[in-house]
Amino acid sequence: MTSPSRLELPAYHLFIRPANLRELKRDIWFDDPVPAKLMMNNKTYDIGIAFRGNHIREFEKKSYLFTFLKPSAYQKNQELHLNAEFMDSSLIRSKLSFDFFQEIGVHSPQTKHIVLKINGKNAGIYLEIESVDRLFFQKRNIPVKAIYYAENSNADFCLFSTYDKSFKLDVLAGYERKYGDIEDDQYLRAFIFKINTLSNEDFPTEIKKYLDVDQFFRWYAGVVCIQNFDAFHQNYALVLNAETNLFEIIPWDNEATWGRDCHGAIMEYDFVPITGDQTNLLAVRLLEHGLFRKQYRELLEKILAEKFTESYLTPRIDSLKTMLQNDLRKDPYISYSLEQFEKEIDLIRQFIRNRRTYIQNHLIDLKS
């Protein structure tokens, strides 16, 4: 087994009054933040702190949303997400996913692992995730008109509910607008209505008036490669580009990837077909057309040749493993051994081999 690295992760120090900490823990589903102070890089910031996520709030090791009370104080950031990665015993699936999306040309949050200390006590390894907000796009010189978070499985671009097949009372029920106005809501409704009602003949031309198709397929190909099943109908950001007036998708929530599901169970490498999950009506309609299938297939072929390979990803995986293993020993919520940690890393490598072969063998399914 590889000897542990002496490298240590950067430490974030959270200071919160006992009364505020009790208030935070009193109701894990309450979203209003409580006041605290956060020290990073020898600087202290006033923040609000709340738990984040859905089912992950019930885990012993909590994930957090930090809100800066004076955003200009820390790189103009308004929010900071800290993920516990509690169900991922490799601790790298999310970061590996976000980095992979960047490598294949998808704008994706910056991430880094840190150690969180709460009132001087080690709270373990966390993944810091950049918030998808106005600043996210300002940093990248991308003009943005509206930002929506796809919060639940109703964000599937369909007029019908996936639960009971009835008409949705509001097709935006699966989305939360983080930035923009009511006019943008109407534009998104029109987009979803077009997806559901355009004839097969009109669809290819009309859909390109609303969607950046190349960007969508880059995101979709990434989701198919890493097999993020939930991302087909939730856990992404939908963005309206102010310059092109086209919708784009930004990846979000990538823990259930690289061979594991959201509960930490094995997800076999062939669970998701090369065409993705049929709950995403936008992808279903796009892939009904030969030119779009060809565009998607050629993009997948390029990714399989250049990025989604064991030789390309292994150095990145090994670097993350080396960086984490020293602080892994000190995380109070981790009970598994370094040997188990390395076995989980090996499982990711095996998934890449098997998944890549599976996708290559099914490229023929995308031919007209």
From TrEMBL:
InterPro entries: Spore_coat_CotH_CotH2/3/7. Keywords: Capsid protein, Virion. Pfam families: CotH (PF08757). This is Spore coat protein H. It comes from Neobacillus kokaensis.
